[in-house]
Write a structure and sequence with these properties.
- The chain is an alpha+beta fold and 378 residues long.
- It has 10 helices and 13 strands.
- The protein has helices spanning 24-34, 170-179, 181-184, 190-200, 209-218, 234-249, 265-272, 292-310, 335-344, 363-377, and strands at residues 5-6, 10-11, 38-39, 55-58, 68-75, 81-90, 93-101, 109-115, 118-124, 128-137, 140-150, 160-163, 166-168.
- The strands form 2 sheets. Strands 1, 8, 9, 10, 11, 12 and 13 form a 7-stranded antiparallel β-sheet that branches.
- Helix 6 runs parallel beside helix 10 (363-377).
- The radius of gyration is 25 Å and the shape is elongated.
- The N and C termini lie far apart (73 Å).
């Protein structure tokens, strides 16, 4: 008879810029923020780094929403040991429901599957296997079975299996595997996970749908596929703001190539308009994610361009950020842009007291900011 071990829930604060976790993208971002997952020491690249699975989502209720997130990571600062943690999204609040020091070196991947109220999670290392079967009972997650496959470092010695801390032979271990075969059969492949994750990013949030439709009508967003819930990069935002300015002012800017790492015409136009300046030495860094204060600066420059082109005044300059407790995080070069747009109501805080200048912005959030600028100019 195998005893059950109670796993207590530990409340964790959400640090993703929102009070609530609303979608899978935020859930994964949360995991990336709260754990190192895969940290490399300076100058070290492990062969096992490639094709590494670092997290896995699970929809245990079958309602299309992922309630669980399993994360595997290696902490090179702690003797290269690896860990597994499982988080529960409880109506937008995150609880850590399980954690384990799984040992071993490098090459980890995380898989798990739901079967009724059982969650089977395993973590595979280059030299070791670790798995746990959790079950939801009486409002708590409990450890039902824990399994370990232990071999010597270079695989030269005999394999030792442990089930719930007791060493067993290969036949007993295979019998156990057969007993949970239905759960094994529920595994998602890495490609299936990727497809499920990225497909979930293609549709705007319910609260954003009206403004996203406006963005399409105004010509700010084109008809190609967009990942609305993914964080926007510098090139994508340049495309949005140039579309917005050209459509609002009924102009079509012309520009030569300004950067060595992109020939995107929207980026070149943004440079000609004075909206972007690049990241140094002819580099634009098109794929880099863009922060809220960088977006504010680009929007502010776009509005200044519109003022010069039309002779109208659309915005009053301000550096007043006294309403925000994190005003000290706003860079000196961004204070006028952030303050002016906040005063005009174009950029709003992530809460009543936080402006979050260093946070990234999703595609849909960025598009809505451009919609506000477009409507102001019109």
């Amino acid at each position: 008879c195998l005893s059950l071990i109670m796993v207590s829930s530990v409340g964790l604060s959400v640090s993703a810029g929102n009070d609530n976790i609303e979608n899978d993208a935020q859930l994964i971002d949360y995991a990336k923020n709260v754990t190192s997952m895969f940290r490399e020491p300076d100058g070290f690249v492990g062969a096992w780094e490639y094709n590494t699975v670092k997290y896995m989502l699970a929809d245990i209720s079958g309602d299309g929403k992922n309630e669980l997130l399993a994360v595997g990571y290696t902490d090179y600062d702690d003797e290269s040991y690896s860990y597994m943690e499982v988080f529960e999204n409880d109506n937008g609040k995150i609880n850590k429901i399980y954690s384990a020091d799984t040992g071993g070196y490098g090459g980890l991947q995380v898989r798990f599957a739901s079967y009724n109220n059982d969650i089977y999670i395993y973590e595979y290392h280059y030299h070791l296997f670790f798995g746990v079967l959790l079950q939801y009972k009486n409002g708590n997650w409990e450890e039902q079975h824990k399994e370990e496959e232990i071999i010597d470092l270079y695989g030269e010695g005999p394999t030792v299996f442990k089930l719930d801390g007791v060493e067993i032979d290969g036949d007993a271990y295979r019998a156990y595997e057969e007993s949970i075969k239905d759960i094994y059969d529920e595994f998602l492949t890495w490609d299936e996970l990727q497809n499920k994750y990225y497909n979930s990013l293609k549709y705007p949030s319910e609260w954003a749908k009206t403004d996203i439709e406006k963005a399409k009508q105004y010509g700010i967003i084109d008809d190609t596929e967009h990942y609305y819930l993914d964080n926007i990069n510098r090139e994508q935002f340049a495309e949005l703001i140039v579309n917005g300015i050209e459509k609002a002012l009924k102009v079509s800017a012309k520009a030569d190539n300004a950067f060595t790492d992109t020939d995107n015409q929207a980026v070149n136009k943004a440079y000609a308009m004075g909206i972007v300046t690049g990241t140094g030495e002819g580099i634009f860094s098109p794929e880099a994610k863009i922060t809220r204060q960088e977006i504010a600066t680009m929007l502010y420059r776009a509005i200044k361009y519109a003022q010069k082109a039309t002779g109208n005044t659309y915005i009053e300059e301000s550096t007043d950020l006294s309403n925000y407790s994190d005003k000290g995080s706003v860079s000196e070069w961004a204070k006028t842009a952030v303050g002016s747009l906040a005063k005009r109501g174009i950029i709003k805080g992530v809460s009543d007291t936080e402006i979050a200048p260093l946070h990234n912005t999703t595609y849909e959030q960025a598009a809505i900011l451009v919609v506000r600028v477009y409507e102001m100019l019109k």
